[in-house]
Amino acid sequence: MARYLRIFNFLWKLRRVEHALIGAWKTMKPNCITSHSFTKLQHAVKLQLLSTLRQCQVLWNQMNHFVTNLQYYIMFEVLEVSWSNFSNEMEVARDLDDLLAAHDKYLHSIVEKSLLGERSQSLYKSLFVLFDLILRFRSHADRLYEGIYELQTRTRASSLSSQDKNRSRRQTSDKSSEPGSWLNDGRKALEERAGEFLQNMGQELEAISKEYTVLLEGFLSQLPVQQHVDLKFLFFRLDFAEFYSRLHPGS
C-alpha cells in the first residue's frame, strides 16, 4: 500500500504542475489581442512591457516542454507499458502466488521508472524542487498579468470622453479606493509606476529563469548515469534536439 501512496502522490503532484501551467497559459493567451491598448504609452515603457511579456512566455514554453515530455514518459512509457506487461502475466498465471508475484513486479516497475526507487532519490528530490519552482512561476505570471490588465484599464479610461470617464470612475470606484492603486494616478505617474512594476517583474522572472536552468541542467545531468534504461530514454525525450547537451559539450 505504501508504494501505491508514493505513486499516487507523485502523479497528483505532476497533474497539479500541469494544471498550473495550463492556468498560466489561459491568463497569458488573451493578452495577444490587447496590445493596441498601450499605443499611447511612452516608447520605453512599451519596450519594457513587450520584453517582460516575451520573457514570461519563453519561460513558460521551457517549463511546458519539460512537463509535457515528462508526463508523456510517465503515462506511456511507464504506466501503459507496465500495465500491459502485468496483464500478460495475469493471463498466464497458474495460481495466486503467480498473481502476487506479477503484481509485485508491476509495482516495482512503476516505482523504478518513475524515479521513486531508492537509487533515484536524488533525482526525485531534484524533480520536486523543479515542480515547486514551476508553481512559483505561476504565481509570478498571475501577478504580472493582473498588473498589465490594471494598466490596460487605466490606459483605456484615460482615452475616454469626459462622460465615459465619469461612468468608468463609478464602475471602478472600488478599485480606485484601494491605497496605491494605479487608477488614482495621472498618466505620468501611471507610466512611472508601470515602468517600475515591469522592471521588478522582469528581474524576478529573470531570477526564476536562471534558477530553473540550473535545476533542470542538474536534473538532466543525472539521467544518463542511471542504471534503468528507461530513464536514459527520458533524457532523450527531454533533450531530443540536443539543446541542453550543446550548452555543456564537455559534460
Secondary structure: number of strands:
0
Note the gap between the termini: 40 Å
**What portion of residues is helical?**
over 70%
Distinct helical segment count: 9
Strand fraction band? Answer: under 5%
Describe the structure.
With 251 residues, this protein is an all-alpha fold. The protein has one domain (2-32, 47-239): Up-down Bundle (Four Helix Bundle (Hemerythrin (Met), subunit A)). Helix content is 79%, strand content 0%. It has 9 helices and no strands. The chain has helices at 2-28, 43-92, 96-113, 121-158, 162-171, 173-176, 187-222, 229-238, 243-247. 18% of the residues are buried.
What is the strand and helix layout of this fold?
Blueprint: H1 2-28, H2 43-92, H3 96-113, H4 121-158, H5 162-171, H6 173-176, H7 187-222, H8 229-238, H9 243-247
Pfam families: GCP_C_terminal
InterPro entries: GCP (IPR007259), GCP_C (IPR040457), GCP_C_sf (IPR042241)
Subcellular location: Cytoplasm, Cytoskeleton
Brief digest:
The protein has about 250 residues and is mostly helical. It is built from 9 helices and no strands. Its main location: cytoplasm.
Which terms summarize this structure?
single chain, 251 residues, mainly alpha, Four Helix Bundle (Hemerythrin (Met), subunit A), 79% helix, cytoskeleton, Gamma-tubulin complex component 3, microtubule
